[in-house]
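Why do we bother with holo predictions? Because pocket geometry can differ from the apo form. Keep that in mind while you read this record for coenzyme A.
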Amino acid sequence: MHRVCISSTGLYVPPHVISNAELVDTFNQFADLENAKYVSEIAAGTKAPIPHSSVEFIEKASGIQQRYVVEKSGVLDPTRMRPRLAARPDSELSLMAEISVAAARDALTRADKKPGEVDGVICAAANMQRAYPAMAVEIQAALGTAGFGFDMNVACSSATFGIEMAVNAVKCGSARAVLVVSPEITSPHLAWKDRDCHFIFGDVCTAILVERLEGAVAGAFEVLGTQLVTKFSNNIRNNAGFMSRSEDRNPDDRDQLFYQEGRKVFKDVCPMAAEHMGRHLASLDLGPCDVRRFWLHQANLAMNQLIGRKLLGRDATADEAPTILNEFANTASAGSIIAFHRHHADLITGEIGVLCSFGAGYSIGSAVLRRS
Ligand code: COA
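The structure, written out:
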């Protein structure tokens, strides 16, 4: 059995930013257009008007101030409200592979590793661009890594579940190093016309290099343990799939995009995540007080504050549980990895951190790390 570490991470940030003000302006234009279209039904009381969204609500309810997207003009067109993505010929690198390669190369450079020294690519994300061939195999070819590649989807916990797969492969010797890439292109599955959730997601890609501790760069984070749990819930769902066509579904049907019961998710997931991390730490003879930093899933600021309080019995400081969702919004499984990427350099040798994701499934995944 080998000792295993996360030796580096990489980040791809899309080129376009949408501020809350731009987002709300588009939504409100859309609402006015719809309300004008159904003016008689609304007057007759047979249809409810669509109320306006507001920047104040979004910032207070979520902590999100902006989001990055791969394409902006289609999202901000009130007669469209979804990104404009051009179909690419099969001979071209697909969009998910392109951003994965960018994030993976960033991680490889930081770890001073060549693609040929990597034996596996796991593409772990909440949405895959196509059914097959696996995105990971295309990414493997574009990078020139050895061995194997496969895709996995556990929604917002995809990256941490991917880390567990990578850690096990390196620990038992079936791979020298594994890249876990999370190309989270969330904008095509977001219901931009739904006021309750139109502000939630942003696009990004992260990459994590998992390898043997022996021979890794100085300051790598040893993985002391990983722990996963799932519990079925319908409170976060997206029913789009390969059977939709045979069910004669319209791609615009509300259940063919992301939908959730946000309040219920909040209530269910906060105690689950806090208990999960507490249990995981206890299994390693550690407690929350031994943890220098929590890199938490980034869905909602109040949610992370509540989880911090449940774990520590007091408010976690911004230094203990850093926030990146103000800049990135909810980037599905990439959120906790961005938090790690941006906020790990100041940990000193021996200090402990916990990566933890939580989301649809429900699914929760954690990794306890120690700076070497
Ligand atoms: N602008 C203005 N008002 C809005 C609004 C918007 N964009 N969206 C909703 N509102 C209104 C609602 O109509 C409601 O009004 P009412 O009280 O008159 O009925 C009120 O604001 C509160 O709405 P609610 O949906 O209960 O807000 P909330 O405080 O629960 O916040 C979320 C919504 C989504 C931010 C929050 O529930 C959340 O983040 N939950 C966790 C979600 C999560 O982690 N999901 C995982 C995804 S992977």
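Residues 221-371 form a domain with the Peroxisomal Thiolase; Chain A, domain 1 fold (CATH 3.40.47.10).
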